[in-house]
Amino acid sequence: MLQRIKFGLKVLLIIIMGGFFHYVLPQHDVVRVTSTEIIRQDFSWYNRMFYAQADSGNVEGTNRDMRLINTVRRKTWIWGFFRRESEEVMVYRNEDTGWIWPPYFKFDSSNLQAESAALAASGGQEQWAVITHYGWRNKLLTVFPNAVSIKPVAGPDVRVIPWFNIFFFSFLVIGWLFLRAAWRQFRERNLDPTLNAIDEHVDAAQDRAQGVWGRFMAWINTWRGKPRV
Fold first, then answer.
1. How far apart are CA 38 and CA 228, in angstroms?
2. Cβ(156)–Cβ(50) below 8 Å
């Protein structure tokens, strides 16, 4: 039962950490910008945590104007020998992160909105771009991923390699292995000798206690009468 509880806690920890990194780390989508707009967004207790702060120089309130970037991205479905391509809409918000979490230090939302509007008005040509963003899209909670940057590309088949995430997880694994080795060395040099000394003292105390108890019981037995024949 205890092993199952430990296993369940480990799985829960992995799910929480995986969701956390999936939300805050940068992601890249190849999209076609269709339009940009500004809406008035009200914040509630269930979705306020998913939004950043107001733009630099503005005061945070219960609602504010929020920039949106409306896009279309192409999805490829492969099932066995069948291949199907379809398009789906994706809406990104465009707001400053400032100096708060996550640490993207974004202060140029106005410039990013102008760049997105220029891509949308590309003269009828299909202008594709790579949007770097973080966060999730949830229609039920009215949550949008936050666009960090946008860069024009040649077409929808461009492959984007997430170099930052690769280096981040590589550094995370190396750091974990280093800490694990340091902990093992510290335990072998400091904790294990101390624990062994404590065990020896405990064993010696138990032996002395058993010796005292044995002598006491032997003394008690001397008071007992011999059995009659």
1. 108
2. no
Handedness of CA 109, 112, 118, 119 (dihedral sign): negative
Q: What type of residue sits at position 69?
A: I
Which DSSP letter does residue 145 get?
P
3-state secondary structure of 212: helix
**Which residues sit opposite 64 in a β-bridge?**
41
Using a CB cutoff of 8 Å and minimum separation of 24, what contacts does 102-110 make? 102/24, 102/134, 104/134, 104/148, 106/148, 107/56, 109/55, 109/67, 110/55
Whether residue 89 contacts residue 72, with contact meaning beta carbons closer than 8 Å, is answered with yes
pLDDT tens-digit profile of 90-115?
999 999 888 888 889 998 899 999 99
Helix residue ranges, H only, the chain? 2-24, 109-120, 163-186, 192-222
Percent of the chain scoring above 70 in pLDDT = 79
Tokens describing residue 37: 């707009």
Q: Are 92 and 145 in contact (CB under 8 A)?
A: yes
- pLDDT at res. 171: 95
> How many CA atoms, within 13 angstroms, populate the side-chain half-sphere of residue 187?
6
pTM of the model: 0.76
